[in-house]
Design a protein that fits this description.
The structure holds 2 protein chains of 2 kinds.
Chain A: E1 4-7, E2 10-13, E3 19-25, E4 31-37, E5 43-51, E6 54-57, E7 64-70, E8 73-78, E9 87-94, E10 100-102, E11 106-110
Parallel strand pairs in A: 2-11
Antiparallel strand pairs in A: 1-3, 3-8, 4-5, 4-9, 5-6, 7-8, 9-10, 9-11
Chain B: E1 3-6, E2 11-14, E3 19-21, E4 23-26, E5 32-38, E6 44-50, E7 56-59, E8 62-65, E9 75-77, E10 86-93, E11 101-103, E12 107-112
Parallel strand pairs in B: 2-12
Antiparallel strand pairs in B: 1-4, 3-9, 5-6, 5-10, 7-8, 8-9, 10-11, 10-12
Classes of the chains: A mainly beta, B mainly beta.
């Protein structure tokens, strides 16, 4: 089994719809992250969580929300999807030194 | 704030050529440095890391040395293979940012037979 599992792997949704991306990890780490990848821009941090009761905004949190349901689960929601949120989304978990383990990504298309 | 700058890409090489991908960083503290690799259709995976100045990280023939004086962490490989074709990301994690990773923009490497 993968250390970090994301669902769905691909999703096409319409503008204005609410969508949730889910992530679960088996590494036992407290820290979890959601990143967005756009071509030529590397990875940008959307939200991060250092434990179940700790949620923090990243560089590009506008238009997104998250929920940390358990140590192993961290979901990302787009409340009202817009076309410029079309991107590849990655969930990750890390140890305290920053070494991260990534999911395989969710390719989201907003039409 | 922390930042990472990678050399402009994409990079195209012939098999067995020497590879260098430059990476420089800015950080307020004493960061750990990483290279991650992303193969087509996959997530990022750790390639190598270095946690303090003058450390050399190495894996799968790739190497990078943590140079504090030049704030650099250049990735090198002596002889690339077609299977090395991927996107390479330099990243740092600063204790001052509680372990969050800051990424460079990524460098696309294509190796031809």
């Amino acid at each position: 089994d993968a250390d970090v599992t994301q669902t769905p792997r691909n999703r096409i949704t319409k503008t204005g719809k609410r969508i949730m991306l889910e992530c679960s990890q088996t590494k036992g780490h407290d820290r979890m992250y959601w990143y967005r990848q756009d071509p030529g821009l590397g990875l940008q941090l959307i939200y991060y969580s250092f434990d179940v009761k700790d949620i923090n905004k990243g560089e590009i949190s506008d238009g997104y929300s998250v929920s940390r349901q358990a140590q192993a689960k961290f979901s990302l929601s787009l409340e009202s999807a817009i076309p410029n949120q079309t991107a590849l989304y990655f969930c990750a978990t890390s140890d305290t030194m920053g070494e991260a383990f990534f999911g395989q990504g969710t390719r989201l298309t907003v039409v | 704030g922390d930042s990472v700058t990678q050399m402009e890409g994409p990079v195209t090489l012939s098999e067995e050529a020497f590879l260098t991908i430059n990476c420089t960083y800015t950080a307020t503290g004493y960061p750990s440095l990483f290279w991650y690799v992303q193969y087509p259709g996959e997530g990022l995976q750790l390639l190598l890391k270095a946690t303090k100045a003058d450390d050399k990280g190495s894996n799968k023939g790739f190497e990078a040395t943590y140079r504090k004086e030049t704030t650099s962490f250049h990735l090198e490989k002596g002889s690339v293979q077609v299977s090395d074709s991927a996107v390479y990301f330099c990243a740092l994690s600063d204790l001052g940012s509680y372990g969050k990773l800051t990424f460079g923009q990524g460098t696309i490497l294509t190796v031809h037979p």
